[in-house]
Amino acid sequence: MTPGDRLDLSAFELAVDEQFDGDELDRSRWLPHYTPHWASREATLARYEISGATLKLRIDADTSPWSPEFDGEVRVSHLQTGQFSGPAGSRMGQHRYRAGLVVREEQPEARLWLPRFGVIEARVRAIRHPDAMVALWPIGFEHSPEDSGEICVFEIFGRDLDDHGGLVGVGVKPQNDPRLALEFEQVRVEGDLTEFHDYAVEWLADRLRFFIDGRLVKTVHQSIAYPVQLMLDVYELPSDAPRDTSRHPLVFEVAHVREYRLPAGPAQPL
């Protein structure tokens, strides 16, 4: 392995170090709702606790689907670091993941933690359950509709884990940004992914490099130039079988989330 295959932070400064070391969520950084404009704040409120210096996002046996109208039986506990959407009845809102979405509840705009270039890193434990998925995917704040691309730092389905390792999704998804091309893949990682591992993206103006435990696993020769908000979540996805809650709660444990920047500010001029 060459030095360029390892994550090198020597040129960066630590800008945000979210350690989850208190007992309350820092509401100056995080909103505990999943795209509430497509449903409501009540329906999208995350279940979580902060204890033992980790965040624990949780889906319980009695967790309801967040948006039966638009997303069926999908359940989620989620934190995000920004919020932008239009008035009720409009089609303007972040993460337009399917056609036909309509804002159901107007939300106040929030610009809490919006990185632009640098390194985003998280230390987390995945969940080995066939219906679980955990992810960190920064998305465009989307003040302009085309500024909607997604950087997938990691996306891990419980069904893709085994006794010796598993598959981790990394890369770029255009969503509704016509300037981007889909460049996403699942890479095989050895080791127990239900234990803590480090996932990071080095985000520069001309490329994105993805790292797991400090090791380069993918390079994407495209990038985005607009600010993103962090989307940190655990999903329970429906299957063909009746829902089995015998192994609930599904708990996604996060030790830290960090942002590094180049010393002069953003890595490239605005």
Q: What's the number of structural domains?
A: 1
Strand content: 35-45%
Helix proportion range? under 10%
Largest sheet: 8 strands, antiparallel
Shape: globular
Number of helices: 2
The radius of gyration computed from the alpha-carbon positions, rounded to a whole number of angstroms, is: 18 Å
Mean pLDDT: 95
CATH class: Mainly Beta
Q: How do the strands and helices of this protein lay out in sequence?
A:
Elements (H helix, E strand, L loop, with lengths): L12 E6 L22 H4 L3 E4 L2 E6 L8 H4 L3 E6 L1 E2 L26 E2 L6 E8 L6 E5 L2 E2 L9 E8 L7 E9 L9 E8 L6 E7 L4 E5 L2 E6 L7 E2 L1 E6 L13 E12 L9
Antiparallel strand pairs: 1-18, 2-3, 3-18, 4-17, 5-6, 7-13, 7-18, 8-10, 8-17, 9-16, 10-11, 11-12, 13-14, 14-15
Structure commentary:
The radius of gyration is 18 Å and the shape is globular. The chain has a single domain (3-9, 24-240), classed as Jelly Rolls (Sandwich). The strands form four sheets. Strands 1, 2, 3, 7, 13, 14, 15 and 18 form an eight-stranded antiparallel beta sheet that branches. It has a six-stranded antiparallel beta sheet with strand order 4-17-8-10-11-12, with no helix packed on it. Strands 5-6 form a two-stranded antiparallel ribbon. It has two helices and 18 strands. The chain has helices at 41-44, 68-71; strands at residues 13-18, 48-51, 54-59, 75-80, 82-83, 110-111, 118-125, 132-136, 139-140, 150-157, 165-173, 183-190, 197-203, 208-212, 215-220, 228-229, 231-236, 250-261. The chain is an all-beta fold and 270 residues long. The longest helix has 4 residues, at 41-44.
